[in-house]
Amino acid sequence: MKTVTDFFGTMVFNDQVMKERLPEDVYNSIQNTIQNGKHLDLSLANEIANAMKDWAIEKGATHYTHWFQPMTGITAEKHDSFISPLDNSTAIMEFSGKELVKGESDASSFPSGGLRATFEARGYTAWDPSSYAFIKDGALCIPTAFCSYGGEALDKKTPLLRSMEVLNKAAIKILKLFGHDDIKTVKPTVGPEQEYFLVDKETYNKRPDLVYTGRTLFGSMPPKGQELDDHYFGTIKPQVKSFMKDLDHELWSLGVFAKTEHNEAAPAQHELAPIFTTTNLATDHNQLTMELMQKVARKHGLVCLLHEKPFDGVNGSGKHNNWSLSTNTGMNLLEPGETPSENAQFLLFLCAVIKAVDDYQDVLRISVASAGNDHRLGANEAPPAVISIFLGEELTEILDAIEKGVKLGSKEKEKMRVGVHILPKFPKDTSDRNRTSPFAFTGNKFEFRMLGSNASIADTNTAINTAVTEVLNEFYDVLSIAEDFNGALDELIKKTIKEHKRIFFNGNGYDDAWIKEAEKRGLSNLKSTPDALVHLLDEKNIELYTKNKVFSEKELYSRCEILLESYSKIINIESRTMIDMAKKLIIPAISKYTKDLARSVNEKRELDFDIGYEFEVGKKLSVLCTEAYKLTLELEEKRKDVSKIKDAAEKAKAYESVVLAKMNELRKTCDEAERLTAREYWPMPDYGELLFGIRE
Ligand code: ADP
Ligand code: MG
Q1: Which member of 107, 278, 295, 470 lies 3.0 to 4.6 Å from 123 by CB, making a disulfide possible if both were Cys?
Q2: In this structure, what DSSP letter does residue 132 have?
Q3: CB of 322 sitting under 6 A from ligand 1
Q4: In which element (H, E) is residue 529 found?
C-alpha cells in the first residue's frame, strides 16, 4: 500500500523535482527567485519549460494552462495542448519558454472595472515563479498573475505579491536595526482554517435557491438545530469520512498540507485546516482546497457549500486567517523571546500589527466584505463588523505596565525599559480562549476571523501586509535616526500602546454592550458591504496603497467598482431566484393546500364534522398566500427600479436597503406558511432534510 509520503506532492513541480531535472545553474537561479524574490533570467525559461513539460507528460498530462485568480474570486484556466504538428501526420509535444512565461487570453468576460477598454479585450497572464506549477485533471497548471495591456493588475495574486515584496523590505530594514544582518527574507505566513457544509446531492438539486445562489432563500428551522452542540467535534459520518479521505489524498498529492478535519458547530458543517505556509502558496492552496472540496464532494453524492450563510438560524461558515512573519533564518517575529533584545523586537512587531489594525480598521473590514459575509458579521455567531484586537489578559497586563513604565507586579515604581528588561513569561495556552474576537493574538501569530468561507485569502493578506508595511516604515523612520536606540524604542512602544489601546478588547465581541462601547472609542463599524466598500477610496486608504506601490489609484477605483457591481449582481440574482420560486413553487403550493383545506371544510360541514383545523389553517394560509403574492410583486417592482440605477455605489446600497429588505419580508411570510403547510404539499426539501439528510 502506498503511504502518504509516497504520494505527497507528487503532482507538484516542486523543489525536489526541479533539483532532479534542471541543470545546476538553472536550478540555482530559480531557487534564488523563489527564496529571495530575485527576478528570473528569462533566457532560462526554455530549459525550465522543457523540464516541466517532460515531467508533466510522464505524469500523464496532455495540456498546459496558465492558472490565475481573476476578480471573480475563483480560479480561471484555459487549456492548450502540448501538441504541435511536425508534418502532416505526426505530432510532437512542445512547450516553449515563451509559452511558460507569458500567456495572452481573450479575457473580455472577466471583471476589469474599466481597466481594460473593450477594444483591448486581451489580458495577459505572466508566470509567477514563486508558486509551484502542478498537475490537475491532466493539465500542467502554471500559477500566473493576470494583468491588462497597460500592466494593471486584473487579479488578486499580483497585489498580494506586491504587498509581500514591500513587507519583506520593511521588515528587513527593522531587523537590521536589531543587528540581524544575516536575514535575507521575511515572509508573511498563513494558515487558513476553512469551514464548509456538506449536503446530499439529490436534496440539493431540488432547491433552486441553493443551485442558483448557494444559499437557501426560504426555509424555516427544523425542530432541532445546533443547540445541543452534539455535532461539534462529533463522530464523522461514514459518507463524510470517505469524502474527507479522498479529499486529503487529492490535496496531499498537490502538496497541500491538509492537517485537521473535524465537524463544526452547525449540523452538516465541517472544517479543514492546513499547516501554515508562505502566503502566496497558502493562497494557491486555499483556492485549490475550495475547488477540490466541491469536486470531490460530488463524487461522493454530496454537494459542498462554501457560501457564508447557507442556512438561516444555524451558524454560517467563515475562514480564519492565521498570520505571522517568518525569516529565512527560521525566526517567527511574533514569538515572544527569551532575552531583552528579542523581547523588544517582538514587542515592536506586535506594536506594528496593533497600530496597523487600528489605523486601517476599515481597510481590513473592506477586505472581507461580500454579500455572503454580510449575513455573518454582526450576527450572533461571528465577529461583529467592528474590528478589535484580543491580546489575552497576560499580554494586556504586560503592555499596560510598559505603557505606564512600571515593572509588572512591583508596587514601587521601578522604571522599566523594554530594550533592557526581560518580560515576564505569559502562558501561551491561555491566550486563545476568546472565540468572539475578530483579530486575536494566539501566542505566536494573529488570527483574523472575519473572512467569509468563500473569500480568496489574497484580499485580506494584501491588506494586512500593506498596513503592517506602512507602520514598519514609520517605525523605521523614527528608530533609524535615534541616537539612543533603546531609549527611542522604549518610547515608541509606549507611545504606540498609548495611542492605540482603544483597539484592545478582551471581552465578548457578540455583546451589544461592546458595540456601544466601540462607538464611544471611535472604532469604525461598517455594517454592510455597500457601506464598507466605498471607504476603499478614502484619501488615507488610497495613500496607503499607492505609497506602498501595492495598488495604483486607477487599480483601486476599478477594484472598488468591480466589488460594488459584484455585490449588486449577487443580490439581483438572489431576488430573481426568490421571485421565481415564490411564483412557480411556493405560492402555488400554498394555494393548492388552501384549496384542499377549503374543500375539506365544505365536505366536512355537510356531514356536520368538526372543521376547526381546516378552517383555521386554511384561513391563515389564504391570508399568507395573498401576502406572499403581494410581496413578490413588490419585490419585482423594486428589483426593476434598482437595477436601473447607474452609479455603482448608489446601486449597491439600494440593492441592500431596498431589495434585500423586501426579500427578507417575503421570506418571513413564506416561512410562516411553510410551518402551516402539510409536508407533502411543500414543493421542495426542507431544512430538516438538508441539515440532517446525510446517511449515518
Ligand atoms: P484553532 O482551531 O485553535 O484556531 P488550528 O490548529 O485549527 O487552531 O489552526 C491553527 C492554524 O494556524 C493552523 O492552520 C496552523 O498551521 C496555523 N499557524 C500556526 N502557526 C502559524 C504561523 N506562525 N503563521 C501562520 N499560521 C500559523
Ligand atoms: Mg482558529
Answers
A1: 107
A2: -
A3: yes
A4: helix 529-533
